[in-house]
Amino acid sequence: MNQKRKFYFIDCQGDQENKQVYFRAIRFNDKEQFKKKSNRIKTAQYGILSFLPLFIIDQLIKFSNQFFLFISILQQIPDASPVGRFTTLLPLTIKFGFSAIKSIIQDLIKHIKDYKVNHKYVEILRNGILVQERWSEIGIGDIIKVKNNNIIPADLVLLSSSELHGICHVETKHLDGEHNLKIRQCVKETSYCKELKDLIDLNGIIECELPNKLFYNFLGRLTIMNKNPIPLDNKQFLLRGSILRNSKWIYGVVIYSGHETKIMINKSLRSVLKESAMGKIQNSLLKTIFLLIFLLSITCALCSLWWIKNSTNKYWYLEQRDVNAYTFLLQSISFFVIFHNTIPVSYVYIEVVRFLQAWFINNDIDMYHEESDTPAKVRSQYLNVELAKVKYIFSDKTGTLTKNIMKLKHCSIAGELYPEGSQNKMIYNLINHSTKNYILEFLRIISVCHTVIPEKSKLTDEIVYNASSPDEQALVIGSQQFGFTFHTRCPTSVTITTLNGEETYEILNIIEFTNSRKRMSVVVRTPDGQIKLFCKVGADTSIIKRLSKSGEKHKNQTLMHLNDFARSGYRTLCFAYKNISESFYNKWKDEYLKASVVLINRESAKNKVAEKIEKKLTLIGVTAIENKLQDNVPKTIQALMCAAIKIWILTGDKEETALNIGLSTTLITQDSSIIIFNETKLTDLRHTINQKMYNLGHTIETMNCTLIISGRFLKHALSSDLKMKFLKFCLNCKSVICYRISPKQKAEIVDLVTKYTNEVTLAIGDGANDVPMLHKASIGVGVVGLDGLKAYNASDYSIAQFNYLLKLLFVHGAWNYEKIIKMIYFYHYKTVVFNSLQLWFAIYSGWSGQVLFDRWNIFTYKSLFTVSLPIVMGLFLTTYSTETRLKYPQLYYQTQNVFSFKMFWIWIFNALFHSMFLFWICLFITKHEVIWIKGRVGDYSVLGNIIYTCTLVIVCFKAGLHTQSWSFIVHLAIWISILLWISFIIIYDELKNVLMHFTVFINLNEIIFRSSIFWITILFTTSVVLLLDIVVIITQRTLSNNMTTYKNGIVEKL
C-alpha cells in the first residue's frame, strides 16, 4: 500500500480498437501529499538571461525586419551605398529599441501578475486540518476549500457544498463572457462530506480524461472505497478562474492544475486566423514589385557599365573605373539600395486603418442593442475587407432569425386539439372526457420531463425558471395555465402542484438530449410507486418508429395537428410515455450505469443502452411553441438577395416549419419556384437529381428558384459520387433551405461551398451547435442569444440582431474594402512617383548610381511627410453615404469590382508619367546658369530639393483629388505635410554646422525660399502634372453621377 501511495496520480494509456486511449487516475486525500504537478503558472515570456536571444529571434521572424537588416548589411559595403551607411541601420536600431522597451514593460507586468496569482492563498486539507497555502503549492489530488466570492484556483471536481443537496453557483464571465450564474451539483455519494472528519475518512480514486481545451466537456468516474464507480460530468466540474457565488463554501478535489487547467490550455493555444484575400493580393503585388526592382537594378548596372565603357574618356575629370564583374556587382547593389524603398515590406498604415475601422464598427450606435446592452464586436479585423465580398450567407434559424423567446401556443392531446385560450376546455376534459388520463399524463410530462431549475425571486417571491433551453422554459410556464406548477427540484426528485395537490416524482434517470438522439427522456417513480418513462422528442420521425401498436391509437390525428402547427411556423415537440416493470428497470439500470462511467465514447455507449428502454412508447400529444421572427428579418433577407447574395437557411426543424420560415422571411416569394428533395435512398436521389437537371437545364440559373432539402438527403448527397453534381445544382438556386440538419452537416456544407466556389462565405448563428459552421465559413458572425455566448465568443464578428448584418456588410464592409483598395493604390503611387525620380536622375547623370536627394530626405518622405495621407484616405474616402448604401443594395456588389490588377497598373503608370514630367520640367527650368541671390548658381542639391518639394505638393494634392469631401482632417493632413517639409528645410539648414558630415545642405533656405524661380516652378509643375488627372476625375464623376441618377430612377420605379 505504501508503495502505491508514492504516486499521487498517474496518466495511463492503452489501446482500444487500434486507437490510443488516454486517461488520468487520481488518488485523492493521500496521506503522503506527494505532488507530481504544480499549480504555479507563468505567462511571462522572458527571463533575465533569455530576454536578448528570444527578443532577437522574435524580431527577426518578421519579414520587414529581415529585409531592413539585409539592406543595412548591404549599406556597410564600402562604396556600395549612395545614401550612407546608417540611414537604414539607425531607424532599425531605434525601432528595435522601442520594441525592446515595450516587450520589457509588458513582460514585467506579466511577471507581477504571475507573482500575485501564485501567491494567493487558499485552504487545503493537510494531515487532517485545513491550512492556508499559496496557490502555487496546490497539487493534483488535493482537497481544497473555496469560500463565497472567491476565485477557484484550479480545475476541481465538486465534493460537497454548504447549500442543500450539494448545489453551488459559479460565475464564469471571465472565462466565456456569460454573466448568468451556472449551477453545479456534487454526486450524492459525497454530498454528506461537510465536516473535516468526513473528508478525512473519504478515500477514493477519480479517473478522468487527460487535460484538454474543451471548456464545456468533462468525463470521469469516481470510485469510493472499492464501491461501484459513479459517473462524473460537467455538472460536477468547476473551472479555474470561475467565481463561487451564493454559497458559503465548497470542497473540491483538484483534477487539473497550473498550465493543465482548461483556461491555461486555451490561453496557450494560438487561434488560427482566417486568411484574408487581401493579404494574398498584397503578397502578390509585393513579389511582383520586388522582381521588377531587382530587374531594374540589374538593368541600371548594365547601363552604367556601358556608359563607363563608352563615355568616360569624354569626361576627363571623372574617376576612371574598370568594367568588370566587381563594378557590376557594386553598381547593382547601389541601385538596389536606391530603389529598395519602392518595396512595401510593411503595410503598417493598413494595420492602423484596420484597427480604426474595427473601432468604428465596435462603436456604431446603430448596431448597439439597448435591450441586451450589446454592441457589435470585431475579433478578426483582418477580415474587414472580406465583409464587402460575401456571396453566400448560411444562417441558423432558431435564435438567429427568431427572438428565441418562446411561448406555448397550442397543443394536441390524444387527437384532441387545444388551441390558445382553451384552458377551460382542457380542465373540463381533464375531469369528464374519455381522454382525461392522456391529458393528465401529458401535463405531468411537460411539468416533469426537463432539466429546469426553479428559484424563488427575493423581490417578488415568484418562481424564476433557469432553463438551458427556451422551449423547456416555455413548456414549464405554459403548464401553469392548466393548473400544473413545477416548483421544487432535488437531486433525486421533482415536486409539482396539480389540481389535486402536490405530487413528488423520484428521478431515477435522466437521459439527456443530444443532437444525435434528438430527444430527452426521464425515468421516474410516480407517487403511487409505478416506474414510468417520460419522453420528449423534437423530431416526429424519431418517435413514430418507437411507438407500440397500442400506442399508435391517436397517431394519425396527432400527426395531422403536428403538420398544421409546422406549416404555421411553430416549433413542434412530441410527447410519449411508457410503463416499466421493476425487474426490467433494475436490469436496464445496471447496464446504463456501466455505460455512464466509461471514459471512451461515453455518449455512444449511453445511447445504445437508452435505445433498449426508449421503445414501445405510447404517443400522448404534441405542442406548438411560438418563436417570433426578430425585427426586420424579411426586409433584411430581401435586401441581401437584391445585393446578389445567395442565402441558405440551415435548421433542425421539420419540412413544414422550414417551408413556413422561408415564406415568412420572404426567402420564398410568390414568383419563386420551389424544388423539394426529400429522398432517403441513394438510387432515388441519383434519379431525382438527374431528372431535375435535365428538365430545368440552364433555365435554373435565371429562375427565382428555392431548393428545399432534408438532412437525410444531404447525408447521401455529400458522401456519394453525386456530391459535385448536387453542389452545382444547389449553387444555381437563388436560395436553399436545409431542414432536419445536424451541426456536423452544417459545417460540412459550409466548408464544401467555401472550398468549391472559392468565394467569400458568411455563416451566422447563435448557439453552440453553430460554432463548427462559423469556423468553416470565410466569416463567422455570432448573434447574442438566450442559449449562451458560445457562438458569440467563437465568431469573427458579433452582433445582437440579424438585421444589423445589413449595416455590417453594406456600409462598413463596402466602405472598408473601398478605402483599403484606394489606400493600396495611393501608397504604391506615392512610392513609385518618388523613387522613379532616381531612375530619371540616373539617366541624366550617366547612370552614376548617385542619389538626387539628401539621404535623410529619402527617409523622412515615407516616414514623416506622407505618412498621414494614406491613413486619411483609408478613413475619410467614401463614395456613398450610409443612407444611400442601405437604400440601394445593388451598390454592394458594384463595390466588389473596386480592385483590379488593371487599375493597379494604371495607378503605377500614372505615377511614372507624373514623375517623368515632374523631373524633366524642373530640370528644364533650372538647368541653365540661373543666378540666385548673392550670385550663387544652382547645383544638383538645389535641383533635388526643388523636385522634392514639387513631388510632395503633387502627391498631397493627388490624395485630395481622390477624396470626395475635403473635411477639416483632410485639409490638416495635406497642409501639415507640406508645412512640415518647409519647416524641416529651415531647421535642417540651421543645424548645418553640426550635421555637415551628414548632408549637402549649404544655406539652402536662403537659396531657394528667396527665389521666385523656386515658387514659379512649384506652381507651374504642379498645375501641368495634375491637369490631366483633374480632367479625367471630373469626367468620371460627372458620368458616374448621371449613371447613378439614372439607375436610382429605375429602381424607384420598380
UniProtKB/TrEMBL annotation:
Residues the record lists as binding Mg(2+): D396, T398, D766, D770
Top-level EC class as recorded in UniProt: translocase
Cross-referenced Pfam families: Cation_ATPase, E1-E2_ATPase, PhoLip_ATPase_C, PhoLip_ATPase_N
Membrane association type: Multi-pass membrane protein
Domain P-type ATPase C-terminal: 793-1040
Protein's UniProt keywords contain DNA damage: no
Primary location group: membrane
SUPFAM superfamilies registered for this protein in UniProt: Calcium ATPase, transduction domain A, Calcium ATPase, transmembrane domain M, HAD-like, Metal cation-transporting ATPase, ATP-binding domain N
Signal peptide stretch: none
Subcellular location, record wording: Endomembrane system; Membrane
NCBIfam families listed in its UniProt record: ATPase-Plipid (TIGR01652), ATPase_P-type (TIGR01494)
Protein name: Phospholipid-transporting ATPase
